[in-house]
Design brief:
15% strand; binds farnesyl diphosphate
Amino acid sequence: MASDLLHQIRLHGAIPRHIAIIMDGNGRWARGKGLPRTAGHRQGMNAVREVIEGAVEAGIEILTLFAFSTDNWQRPRVEISALMGLLTVYARQERAELVRQGVEVHVLGELDRMDAAARRAVDTIVDGTSGGSRMRLNLMISYGAREEIVRATRLLAERVAKGELDPSAIDDDAFRAELFTGDQPDPDLLIRTSGEFRLSNFLLWQLAYTELHVTPVLWPDFSRKELFSAVRDFQRRERRFGRVRAG
Ligand code: FPP
């Protein structure tokens, strides 16, 4: 049961501060039930709600969800509209509940590619949840890690060209500060659903030392129980960051 797992997690200390999730398998979930892909995305939205609640319960500080990639702009127009529509519904329906739970939402990515209605919805949920102090939720939308790295490089180059920054001052911290995730700690744990062992252009810089957990569960079926199992799996790992074991 989920509550037993939560108890186990608390007993074993070391809770990941930051969890990132590649939410995959909505289409396969729908196909398996003879439903249109959009039905999978709708059910996926319920899983988003459930996982946020679970993450708050477990004491996770930052939850980063890959909701829409720059590659997803290549999907059929109807599917893109359905996803943007769901995001708008989500922002409208969930804002009050997120405030109640103390969740502060940040939406990160190339947001100027979104249509005006979806953009307004994003602004509303970001403004409306600002100040939530229990957990930060990063919704990555129109996001691609290579694009993010190229953008960070361009921003640094512009500062150098203006004479504001000396190239010798470009180090890890200076680079990190130009990423969408800014000065947040890197994810401790990355979860990918639907059994695929790929990063799919997600947080390539930030995942350098992150522990990976791949589960065959399709995203719409992902629940608190799966989240807590992933945290228990993380707690059994020995993180060495390239060093040897202490003692
Ligand atoms: C991957 O499944 C999922 C997505 C591309 C979108 C994720 C969106 C949601 C979970 C719903 C809405 C989210 C919010 C935050 C309101 P897929 O379509 O690639 O599945 P497949 O690989 O089985 O085809």
